[in-house]
Design a protein that fits this description.
The chain is mainly α. It has three helices and no strands.
Length: 85
């Protein structure tokens, strides 16, 4: 703490995440953000990711976490490389 008992950063209340998400989604929709991101990637750079059925080998368990994050990371990586996923 600094002299006089003041804090170096102002206190901020808890963020309202659902409200923030609604504002972001509304802006993306108004600006056509998703459509622009798709148009920015040429069709000849298509990259297809086939996602199988969830939990095809039984009830969900901690082993499914690996495939869950891979199914998220790999398409994001391909998108960042300029492919149309």
């Amino acid at each position: 703490m600094t002299e006089g008992g003041s804090k170096p950063y102002p206190e901020v209340g808890s963020p309202d995440f659902p409200a923030i998400e609604r504002r972001v989604l509304a802006r993306w929709k108004a600006e056509g953000t998703f459509e622009q991101s798709v148009r920015a990637r040429p069709p000849e750079r298509d990259w297809v990711f086939y996602d199988g059925p969830p939990f095809a080998n039984g009830l969900p368990h901690h082993g499914h976490l690996l495939t869950g994050y891979v199914k998220d990371v790999v398409p994001r990586y391909q998108t960042m490389r300029g492919n149309r996923v």
